[in-house]
Specification:
single chain; 581 residues; alpha/beta; Rossmann fold; pyruvate-formate lyase- activating enzyme; 4 domains; 6-stranded mixed sheet; 4-stranded parallel sheet; 22 helices; globular
Length: 581
């Protein structure tokens, strides 16, 4: 069995550039796991940044491991990619989790490796299990009983501290190691911290970490393979975070404040990438929001790069970026209105006017793009049937301007922790399905392809996104991964679906209050009140300079370009701080 798995792994390795091979002798051994397939995981820039970061330490060997679909049922061993060793032999097993639905895969991987899934059942004879990533940062509670430690926020910030601790104490009694981890800022040790509901009046929270200077942790590709969606592409994160304040968007809050890399640094990283491939992928919450995108995109094309971009805004659209994409052979221009009516776009704070959206459509026609793809969400708070009709009207207007292929996604809205919509009910799956079918019927006759994600699975995702520690029993006991089995397992454990899918109290407490995101709770409540009035709230200033509105930025960051204001703010804070008697 193992030789067959190893042969498959060797096929992947032979096609790769950048894999690191080290002897395990005398080194700290880390298995870096992505709980999905190799094809999906190798498009994760987070995985690549962590892989480079761990392996930068001479006395650390970091090898990758991916979810093996069907591997647990077939009794296949779970092996690391680089050396083909069994995962249960490593010192540290680190997961980067991007998506709640991968929680099921985490459990499968642990069972396939023969590792007890609950942290309380493991001692120092087992690998230490840590996790991080957006899937667990804002609400780690459904996964909390599984992991020994969870990094809250951006893992690069704490990597050196973790490695230093593991060097000294990885073989210490597990209770001692957990106590030491608990002392590291940004590290959550669930066994040592009761759930927020159990903590009482003065709960202890874990502060979210964020990187102030990404140049210290280059957010660029370290591995290249044809066996992934972004095949043989040099990925570069040109900015992190987004200051637009879209009320549904987890990324807009998990990565606050917005930060961008300077043009000169990006061009240097691109030159390094072009030594391996001519394909450059620009990554950001909104690539077109980079203050120097109009200079960056043409410069990369002039260097011989073929460009791709993860996403862009149209308010306003960057013509140089779109021209560079088309010159690179891009076949699709992707536009994300998210809602069809102007009213609903104000509710969700997606401030793109219909005129701006149609200008982007006109530009796509002018530059002869073969396809436009629209991304919409359905089921937003306050959405009505009239909003569906407005969506259809808008897409048909776009059809008049663009005669080639138009495709669109109708993705169900899922409320997420630490967003202004965190308290909102999930629109019932039956209603979502009805609206998806309505869009398909009305737009299909105009040869517009509508792709509709499953509302039934969206409800499962919503439960995991706003869940608590009790859900771990559902993850461990579900007999097979199906919607029906998920709800039946919840019922068997006495958990009511409406308690997770319905309207939540603004007064809390919430399971995810264990995380101090940096955003003031009153700011989320203020944003929700504005949403009810179809009003747009404040945006972050360019590069987040000079703002203390939501609470994420401290004066040292907010006024770093304005020394006089920083001095006044610091002085004000000092005067308001009582001195001990």
């Amino acid at each position: 069995m193992s030789w067959k798995i190893r042969a498959e792994q060797q096929t992947f390795l032979e096609q790769e550039i950048g894999a690191v091979h080290k002897d395990w002798g005398g080194r700290l051994v880390v298995a870096l796991a992505f709980p999905n397939t190799y094809y999906v995981g190798m498009s994760s820039l987070a995985l690549q940044v962590l892989y480079r970061g761990f392996n930068a330490f001479p006395d650390v060997v970091c090898e990758r491991v991916f979810w093996d679909k069907g591997g647990h049922e077939a009794h296949r061993p779970l092996l690391t990619l680089e050396s083909g060793r069994r995962v249960n032999e490593v010192d540290v097993w680190a997961f980067t989790i991007s998506y709640e639905m991968d929680f099921f895969h985490v459990v499968e991987m642990l069972r396939q490796a023969g590792v007890p899934p609950l942290a309380s059942e493991r001692d120092e004879t087992w690998p230490l299990l840590i996790a991080g990533g957006p899937g667990v940062t804002m609400n780690p509670e459904p996964m909390a009983p599984i992991f020994d430690a969870i990094v809250i926020g951006e893992g690069e910030e704490v990597l050196a501290d973790l490695v230093a601790l593991f060097r000294e104490a990885i073989h210490a009694p597990r209770t001692e190691l957990l106590a030491a981890l608990d002392r590291i800022p940004g590290v959550y040790v669930p066994q040592l911290l009761p759930s927020i509901e159990e903590q009482g009046a003065t709960p202890r929270q874990i502060e979210r970490l964020w990187v102030r200077d990404q140049r210290h942790f280059p957010p660029i590709s370290s591995l290249y393979t044809p066996e992934t969606e972004f095949r043989n592409m040099h990925l570069m994160e040109i900015a992190r975070g987004c200051g637009r304040g879209c009320r549904f968007c987890l990324a807009g809050y998990v990565y606050r404040p917005p930060r961008e890399l300077p043009l000169s640094q990006l061009l240097d990283w691109a030159r390094e990438g072009l030594k391996h491939t001519n394909r450059i992928g620009l990554i950001s919450a909104a690539v077109s929001d980079h203050s120097q995108i109009d200079e960056l995109a043409p410069a990369l094309v002039e260097m011989g790069a073929k460009l791709s971009a993860s996403s862009m805004r149209v308010d306003p659209i960057s013509r140089p970026l779109v021209e560079a994409l088309r010159a690179s052979g891009a076949q699709t221009l992707t536009i994300a209105p998210e809602a069809g009516s102007a009213r609903l776009r104000d509710v969700i704070a997606k401030t793109q006017s219909e005129e701006q959206l149609l200008e982007a459509v006109t530009l796509a026609a002018e530059l002869d793009f073969p396809q436009i793809k629209f991304y919409f969400m359905i089921g937003h708070p306050t959405e009505t049937e009239d909003d569906m009709d407005e969506l259809i009207r808008f897409v048909l207007k776009a059809r008049e301007l663009f005669k080639r292929r138009i495709a669109m996604n109708a993705t169900p809205f899922v409320p997420k922790a630490h967003t202004p919509f965190q308290w909102m009910p999930m629109t019932p799956a039956k209603v979502l399905k009805k609206r998806q079918n309505y869009l398909m019927r009305r737009l299909g006759r105009h040869k517009i392809a509508v792709r509709a994600d499953s509302p039934a699975w969206a409800e499962v995702q919503a439960v995991l996104a706003r869940g608590d520690r009790r859900l771990v029993r559902v993850l461990l006991d579900i007999p097979k991964l199906s919607v029906r089995d998920f709800w039946e397992t919840m019922a068997r454990h006495g958990l009511e679906r409406d308690a997770y899918l319905g309207q939540l109290s603004l007064r809390g407490p919430m399971p995810w209050d264990i995380v101090e995101s940096g955003v003031k709770p009153t700011f989320f409540q203020y944003e929700w009140r504005l949403a009810q009035q179809s009003r747009v709230g404040p945006h972050c200033p360019p590069d987040s300079a000079g703002c203390l509105t939501c609470g994420v930025c401290d004066p040292a960051w907010a006024f770093r370009f304005e020394p006089e204001k920083l001095r006044k703010q610091t002085s004000k804070r000092t005067k308001s701080t009582p001195t001990p008697s």
